[in-house]
Amino acid sequence: MKNCPVCEKGKLVEVDDITSNLDGYIFVVKGERCTHCREEYINEKELQPMISVAQKLGVWGQPLKLHRKLSRSARGTVLRIPTDIEKDLHLKGNEQVTIAKQGNNRIVIEIE
Ligand SMILES: [Zn+2]
Q: What does the alpha-carbon distance between residue 76 and residue 57 come to, in Å, rounded to a whole number?
């Protein structure tokens, strides 16, 4: 059994009930789960079919990862949404969003 690379305390045990939520579609896949921190690792073999199903459902989307620099205005820090993402999500610019902090270097913006 492998040790968990995240907490380094638990062992990775094989499971077949890892659920992955992609845009409301739940995928149940095989993989490994840490006995200590419960971190889940999806088998790479399982990941590929999941991605192709998700692509067919149109919930995977192209990997839109773009680099942008934050700017500063009098009222705070401003992030301009790249045009590609704006078009892809059909943003009008008046949507309500939820901004969540994940860890120390990630911000997730969810359109309500
Ligand atoms: Zn762990």
A: 38
